[in-house]
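note to self: dont lose this again. the chain is below, predicted strucutre after it. 223 aa total, dont forget to put it in the shared folder this time
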Amino acid sequence: MKYNLKILKTILGILILFLYTNGNAQNLPFWNDIQTFKKQDSITLPSQYKTLFIGSSSFTIWKTLDKDLPEYAPLNRAFGGSTLLDVIRYRKDIIDKYNPEKIIIYCGENDIASSDTVTGKIVLNRFKELHSHIREKFPTINIYYISIKPSPSRWSMRERMIDANRQIKKYCKKQKNTYYISIWSQMLRNTKPNPSLFLKDSLHMNKKGYEIWIKEIRKKIKN
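---
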């Protein structure tokens, strides 16, 4: 009887731990987005991709990515609103499980927008942590970082964004097989964000904005 009671307590403890962990996990930001990726992979695991796109909404809403950059065979695993910390948190689900030839990152803009206390140095350190995780999993893969874009709705944050871009660019130059893709100046008009490149929310890009990205990505990436 005591033996059975001991087993029962053990099982109950495991069950409570499972429920607690599972419940907390579901409360994490972007949990549903990650589950959507998992469901997609369970139905049809991508096999023909070459380039993994990770980051925030500028990739998420890029619905014509496959058609715009077909030579890179893109696999889009970006989720809208994410920061570099979010990408790091879910790295096992959106990076480690795949086997790409290249990884392209657009992330950091939401880090700046999340708090006035997030400096360019903080964004750099977060990128360095993500870069380190990728390097641990893929020692020789080419990694590309697209610079933070000058969104009109976030123009007041430009100094921190420029600083983050500057520091990340400097860091990329010192790393093997790591490249910085600048799109900042290309999206300005008369030293300010070109409104014709953005949607009505003045944050996300329209087709003209993506055409600039396509051009700069192709200039930097060599198959």
